[in-house]
Amino acid sequence: MKKIFSPAYRQDYVEGYSIGLNPFQQFKSVKKNDAFIAGFNSGRSDYERMNGYISDGIPQRIVTDKVLEDFLIAGLLGIPIDADGYTLHQIDMIEKWYQSGIEKYDPKQNSTLFEILENNGIEFN
Q1: In terms of domains, do 47 and 72 share one?
Q2: Helix/strand/coil (H, E, C) string of 9-75?
Q3: Which of 53, 76, 96 is the last residue of a domain?
Q4: Domains contained in the chain, number
Q5: What number is the average pLDDT over the span 32-50?
């Protein structure tokens, strides 16, 4: 059994993952080792979970974990969201994260946060 925690394995896995996660990334030579293939499959699986199947086309806007976290925070703060440019599959994913944030929304806590942000020059409409 190969050492799956070795630095070389990890590097190949991460390289495969990033290529699988980014449908726009071009690559010339593909490594054909277990780590790269496992990383690619994992990255492609994560991409398709958030954005839909590649065979359905690449959406105008790409959803990542960071984007989903931003929608969660928007729900926590009670901020309305803009869903323009997202596909129905992506909106379903975004809606789940936003709804999770709304369920934890506390207006008293958020008014204090908004005051702190405004004192530091950050304004919300």
Answers
A1: no
A2: HHHHHHHHHHHHHCCCCCCCCCCCCHHHHHHHHHHHHHHHHHHCCHHHCCCCCCCCHHHHHHHHHHH
A3: 53
A4: 2
A5: 91
